[in-house]
Amino acid sequence: MRHFTILILIASPLLLRGQIGGERSFEFINLPSNARTAALGGINVSHTENNVESFLSNPALLDSVKSGDATFSYLGFLADTRLNNLSYAQNFKNVGVIGFGVQYMNFGEIDGFDPSGVEQGTFNANEYALIVGYSHRVSVFALGANLKFASSGIESFRASALLMDIGGIFEHPEKELAVGLTFKNIGFYLSDYTSTASSNIPFDVQLGVTFKPEHMPVRFSLSSYNLYQGDLTFFDDASDASLVNEKAGTFDKVFRHFNLGTEFLISRNVHLRAGYNHLIRKELRLDSKSGGAGFSFGFLVRIKTFELAYTRAIYHVAGGGNHFTIATNMNSLIKKKSKV
Predict the structure, then answer these.
(1) What's the first-to-final CA gap in the chain, in angstroms?
(2) Contact, 21 vs 28, CB < 8 A?
(3) How far, in Å, are 105, 231, 255, 325, 327 from residue 40 at the CA level?
(4) Per-residue pLDDT tens over the stretch 305-329
(5) What is d(CA 114, CA 120) in angstroms, rounded to the nearest whole number?
(6) Alpha carbon distance 87, 70 (integer Å)
(7) Around Cβ 72, how many Cβ atoms within 10 Å?
(8) Structure confidence at residue 19 (pLDDT)
(9) pLDDT at residue 40 in the model
(10) Phi, psi at residue 14, to the nearest 5°?
(11) Concatenated DSSP letters for 295-314?
(12) 144 near 133, Cβ under 8 Å?
């Protein structure tokens, strides 16, 4: 058997979670599933505008999705890693709308070496998740759940897990105000990479609010995550004074749990978006310059029955991610074709 030293392994999820990255497997599940979420800071569980991929963030949001809604999203990330998301919603008689999702991340080819450093060719690494979601409305509240099967492969090593998201959403009956709460990735491993491995599930608790002031063409979102953890800061108490990081203050520690998002509703068919994630900025900026780390910018354009969205999310001075999303309703397309 060949023994490999993996030099670059699953780097992208580490970037999105800063210094707390690398502690858990299957972190690709927590990457933004579409361009809108990426533009609003990377986390959003309260945006109720019709978008089927939103149920990957909060299963309760399936309540606002129409049967036949479909989206495809592509994330071109650092080091040639790529994340693809495909979502679809279908209404079943006597059951309701059920959401289906596939998330696939490809890390490309990685150089392999034996323990002495001799090159042993290349190997592949990839991960995917299959998701089924359902939600139910009771008055101004909606509750939902996702069931997920996740699998990860690194050369000949594989791991799999069965996970669940449980989420809720409250929508104000008169104002454009929504509050969402999600418990993400509750579950257990079906198999681990090796018999001695002890990988951790990427559990998270996320809370958010989205609000549009009356008569203003702007929508605001404030989202919080990693709520089950306290201090997210990393302090290197090195002996060399030049290597010692400045300790974070109370405000800094608290704000690392939040990200901000804003949408400018230029018209029904054109939206501009911007976001800020404090954890990404503080953990991934350089001492000399930030390079815009933590900020994201994007837009949405509706053309007939299609929605096209793009977001540029900056993670580091070395670069960021480009998110593309295309959405449509398959039932509308079929009806139009039948008329022709």
Answers:
(1) 60
(2) no
(3) 21, 23, 16, 14, 18
(4) 899 999 999 987 777 889 999 999 9
(5) 7
(6) 6
(7) 17
(8) 47
(9) 95
(10) -65, -35
(11) EEEEEEEEETTEEEEEEEEE
(12) yes
Q: How many CA atoms lie within 13 A of 16 on its CB side?
A: 24
Work out whether the CA dihedral 136, 170, 87, 271 comes out positive or negative: positive
Joined tokens for residue 221: 């979102």
Amino acid at the residue 114: D
Query: Six-digit token pair at 144?
Result: 């939902």
Residue type at position 80: D
The answer to whether 169 and 177 have CB atoms below 8 angstroms apart is no
State how far the Cα of 31 lies from the Cα of 133, in Å rounded to an integer.
18
- Could you tell me the CA-to-CA distances from 204 to 93, 128, 147, 250, 296 in Å, in that order? 33, 19, 15, 22, 22
Instruction: Enter the tokens of residue 262.
Output: 């804003």
3-class DSSP assignment, residue 17: helix
* Selection from 39, 107, 121, 52 nearest residue 77 by Cα: 107
8 A C-beta contact, residue 239 and residue 232 = no
Note the helical H segments in 6-118.
11-17, 35-39
Q: Which residues of the chain have pLDDT under 50?
A: 1-19, 238-244
pLDDT tens, 250-298? 788 888 999 999 999 999 999 999 999 998 888 887 777 777 889 999 9
Domains of the chain, earliest start first = 11-339 (2.40.160.40)
> CA 183 to CA 113: how far, in whole Å?
40
